[in-house]
Amino acid sequence: MDSITIIEGGVTAPKGFLANGVSCGIKHCMKTGEVLLSDSSGEGVPTKRDVAVIFSMQPCTAAAVYTQNKVKGAPIAVTKRHLADGKARAVIANSGNANTCNADGEQKALQMCTMLARELNISADEVIVASTGVIGQTLPIEPIQAGIDMLVSGLSQSGGTYAAEAIMTTDTFKKEVAVTFEIGGVPCVIGGMSKGSGMIHPNMATLLAFITTDANINASLLQQALSDSVKLSYNMISVDGDTSTNDMACILANGAANNPKITEKGEDYNTFCKALNEVNIRLARLMAKDGEGATKLLECRVSGAPNEDTAKKVAKSVVCSSLFKAAMFGQDANWGRILCAIGYTDAQFNIDKTEVSLASSVGTIKVCESGAGVAFSEEEAKGLLAEDEIIIEINLHDGKASATAWGCDLTYDYVKINGDYRT
Amino acid sequence: MDSITIIEGGVTAPKGFLANGVSCGIKHCMKTGEVLLSDSSGEGVPTKRDVAVIFSMQPCTAAAVYTQNKVKGAPIAVTKRHLADGKARAVIANSGNANTCNADGEQKALQMCTMLARELNISADEVIVASTGVIGQTLPIEPIQAGIDMLVSGLSQSGGTYAAEAIMTTDTFKKEVAVTFEIGGVPCVIGGMSKGSGMIHPNMATLLAFITTDANINASLLQQALSDSVKLSYNMISVDGDTSTNDMACILANGAANNPKITEKGEDYNTFCKALNEVNIRLARLMAKDGEGATKLLECRVSGAPNEDTAKKVAKSVVCSSLFKAAMFGQDANWGRILCAIGYTDAQFNIDKTEVSLASSVGTIKVCESGAGVAFSEEEAKGLLAEDEIIIEINLHDGKASATAWGCDLTYDYVKINGDYRT
Fold first, then answer.
1. Interface subset of B 350-369, CB within 8 angstroms of A
2. Contact with chain B for residue A334, Cβ under 8 A
3. Using CA atoms, how far apart are residues B345 and B318, in angstroms rounded to an integer?
4. Same domain, B266 and B372
5. Between vectors from CA B152 to CA B149 and to CA B154, what angle results, nearest 5°?
6. Which residue from A36, A189, A333, B300 has the fewest beta carbons nearer than 10 Å?
7. What pLDDT is recorded for position A204?
8. Binning pLDDT at 50, 70 and 90, where does residue B202 land?
9. Which domain holds residue A344?
10. Are residues A162 and A134 in the same domain?
11. How far is B415 from chain A (nearest CA, A)?
């Protein structure tokens, strides 16, 4: 049995997880120095929720992957230390400030853990901490300090959705996914939430994906499952080619499902990995779709590659090309830009065999065969590209490996959002 | 004596070179199938000039560097064969169609050489051919055939400027540079023209730079001087991170200056290289400044690097960052994005020592020291960034090597231009 079913919810869909997200007014405090909490009821919140907490009612096995950017956010350093023993029980994450390139960054990140641990009556080193937002501005700790009681007293199963809201920055919608599957006949759940939507070109992980599961699995397999899954999901998306300083994907497994514990590779582990991939790939697609200013999701499917590495390089190169991304915004089937982007990867293959098709919900059009153009109806192509999910199918006819990458179009709004992000 | 003086003109500034550029109506023919030449007087030309010719009255030593994109334009293949003997006498280049990813591409490129050679009474393998424009559409040869007589009969010293116009695509101004210098007391000239302005992220060369000189220099030294110079000029600019399929920089040296021939490395060779760098770097800066949709030239100067390779990687990473480029368009001193772009290079150095300043004609502001922010006036920064040439000074304090890269801001107009380039 390895059937995987999508269900409602996110990080609180698995048994034994509670969450919450409230508005502590971090940005307001950065501007004015004033601490201005919002109503704790979760109703009529005047400003955006900006601090999230996830809590497991029992201890968890935990794993994470982090950005490869040499400039790393302070929370990354603290979280790495806290996860050294493969255990955690809670997450605290804020938006509005990345707490990166600040002299007092680590101290503030640790304070966030300490404050939460005290309220939850757990140890500070059981807390994962994350921050996202502007780089290089001091994180005001006072609003978080003032809001921590409200955050913890409001923890609930329905609070998963508030947590997903609280980590949003320029995201236009919150990103939650959950699946159910069976291990040894016992139903298990994996849930997750993530945020985009700029500085997205992950290298090992992406800016904030939090996954929870009630499956029972040991720490080393959990880490391996996450690391492998990240390579097929978050590492295969790009919004703007900028690898963030604060990227992190983490997973908490509390075992509350009471499945036979997964302690070795085999059928159960494979089922768990499939379910985890399903969650991560769906979250990754949502992040690409909600890329800053994006109007379209681009999915580039490469097949016939001599090896997986080549397939990945080609797929990512296409979804990263500014020229191609702008053409998709303009609904222009300018396939020459696809060939160009394939050509400037450093992967080795025979470009003269390359076949390219464009597809969407309305159909498929072949635009290139054996590395040269084929005649097609521009009008038909325009109609196809008017849809909001575009698939670029590339067959290199040079082997059997394949890979898929996701990206988005390049639009006026990307420029607008990033021309005045700080102000 | 190695003083270098900027003079008026471009490819016809050196002795013995003639050029011309006329409107053959290539784009018009692609749309309608109709051949519609423009008035040969060069006055009142109704459509954009689209075919350029450069001719040396005496045989030349020649050298070139080409794109590293695996998808290569057909003209590149033909030019490589023609330059195998290190000799050439003429150039023919068209805009409006890249003659790339076409089944009959090489045949058409060779036809262009043959037609020109017949009119000039030279051999076809003395002709360098280049094309720029849309990829994957058949190049109509008829308009060029019809225009070749007009092109050749109008060759003149003043025609260099027409040639520079004829290779423009989305460029907003033509790019010409010339310098004079002395070799063994004899005045020599190097002149050049180039075109941008999208798909600019050169790897070995950039889309169409043509350099001429009347200096007398042997073929192997000419090739080495060009290869070295390209690394410091065209390979250090980026408009959009897309490496073109048709990039080419070539140089013709006809020896008409009658300087003592440069046959070995030494003072004369060094002087020649300095003059060549001057021309290429100025042309490269013009291409960055005229990047598609650009309102600002970005110059990133990296110093204190452990080695030149690291300095180059850091400098290019900053001018390539979409996020930073959008911030510059918005005149927002969002230096966190500079640190982020430095951090995601694969170069090895100590990020905690990094110092960053922003500068323009109105002043300099330090924004980051020892990898963390320093207080500065946002208002002052805004004023500084309102200028149209912005310098980003990065000192890694980790060695003695340095490098400079050039780019441009990311604007609404980049998206607009590339959202409907073909239509």
1. 351, 368
2. yes
3. 9
4. no
5. 105
6. A36
7. 41
8. low
9. 297-419
10. yes
11. 6
